[in-house]
């Protein structure tokens, strides 16, 4: 007998965590496991809690500090993402994000009436290439003048790791979504997990937008339509162009990518926002199914993005 998926959601990592699994009796244990794993990621990687490893490492810039294996793993993935995107996803832009106005959790940023951005960005300092990470001894030295921010990779990697661990421990097909960064593991429902593609991860199932099915790997949507705030020079958003230190000027309001993992999907989707028009060729060269939505709502798909079925 096949059970309908059981699902639950809660707040975590400054967004909404959702889990769905095909073994309903395992939901309480899976929820506890997901909560514990995300708390560990938050304690390691948060830019907004003073007791996090990331905040401590930033405060000790220029000196080597011991870090946990978890933080080392998440930072290594961020550095790998920077390398694979030729620096378009640079995890050393924490200070520039603060200067742009993203200096606290987004719920608090949104409440602020406005933010003043300096007339010209600071000079280019250290980059991701200057971060010294000893993976074996778990030692980290953040270069002076840089601040780490793992926002482009941490949630996606957390979704991948949580989905894989829960599928194994609970012997079930599972979907984990963290603010639109979505990973699946185990044997899923027949035809795959249906996923609504929308600008806002909080959109309800009945919201306008196409639905696609995902059976393996991950799917991520990067959007500049939701995480926006007012400044003295107009609206800003959270995806920076590492060449200008400013929110990326891009023709895309939303990019969705499917890949072998949620991490790979989110890296590509975020890089595509920064790449702008060049993203179409970049995604096609990597044979990544992707859907790019312009500011006027027009849509371009590449890489064999599946035919879409309109949600009711």
SSE topology string: EEHHEHHHEEHEEEEEEEEEEHHEEE
Top-tier CATH class of the domain at 6-21 and 173-310: Alpha Beta
Strand order of the largest sheet: 1-2-6-7-10-15-16-17
Overall body shape: globular
Question: What structural category arises from helix and sheet content?
Answer: alpha+beta
Q: Given the structure, what is the number of helices? A: 8
CATH superfamily heading of the domain at 6-21 and 173-310 = ApbE-like domains
The major β-sheet equals: 8 strands, antiparallel
- CATH topology description of the domain at 6-21 and 173-310: T-fold
- Our estimate of the beta-strand percent is 25-35%
In the predicted model, the low-confidence regions spanning at least 5 consecutive residues are: none
Return the average pLDDT rounded to an integer: 88
Q: Distance between the terminal alpha carbons, to the nearest Å? A: 28 Å
Radius of gyration: 19 Å
Q: What is the helix content?
A: 25-40%
């Amino acid at each position: 007998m096949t059970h309908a998926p059981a699902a639950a959601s809660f707040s975590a990592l400054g967004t909404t965590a959702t889990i769905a699994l095909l073994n309903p009796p395992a939901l309480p244990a899976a929820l506890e496991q997901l909560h514990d794993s995300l708390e560990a990621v938050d304690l390691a990687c948060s830019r907004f809690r003073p007791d996090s490893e990331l905040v401590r490492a930033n405060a000790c810039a220029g000196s080597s500090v011991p870090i946990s294996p978890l933080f080392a793993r998440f930072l290594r993935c961020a550095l790998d993402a920077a390398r694979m995107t030729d620096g378009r996803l640079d995890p050393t832009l924490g200070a520039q994000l603060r200067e742009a106005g993203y200096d606290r959790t987004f719920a608090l940023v949104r409440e602020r009436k406005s933010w003043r951005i300096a007339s010209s960005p600071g000079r280019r300092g250290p980059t991701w290439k200057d971060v010294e990470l000893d993976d074996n001894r778990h030692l980290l030295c953040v270069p002076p003048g840089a601040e780490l921010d793992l926002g482009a990779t941490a949630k996606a990697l957390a979704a991948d790791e949580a989905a894989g661990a829960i599928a194994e421990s609970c012997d079930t097909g599972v979907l984990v979504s963290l603010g639109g960064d979505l990973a699946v593991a185990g044997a899923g429902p027949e035809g795959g997990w249906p996923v609504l593609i929308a600008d806002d991860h909080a959109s309800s199932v009945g919201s306008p937008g196409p639905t696609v099915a995902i059976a393996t790997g991950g799917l991520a949507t990067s959007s500049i339509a939701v995480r926006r705030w007012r400044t003295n020079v107009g609206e800003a958003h959270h995806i920076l162009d590492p060449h200008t230190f400013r929110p990326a000027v891009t023709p895309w309001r939303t990019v969705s990518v499917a890949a072998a993992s949620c991490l790979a999907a989110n890296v590509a989707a975020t890089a595509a926002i920064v790449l702008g028009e060049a993203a179409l060729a970049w995604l096609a060269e990597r044979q990544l199914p992707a859907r790019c939505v312009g500011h006027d709502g027009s849509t371009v798909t590449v890489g064999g993005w599946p035919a879409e079925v309109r949600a009711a």
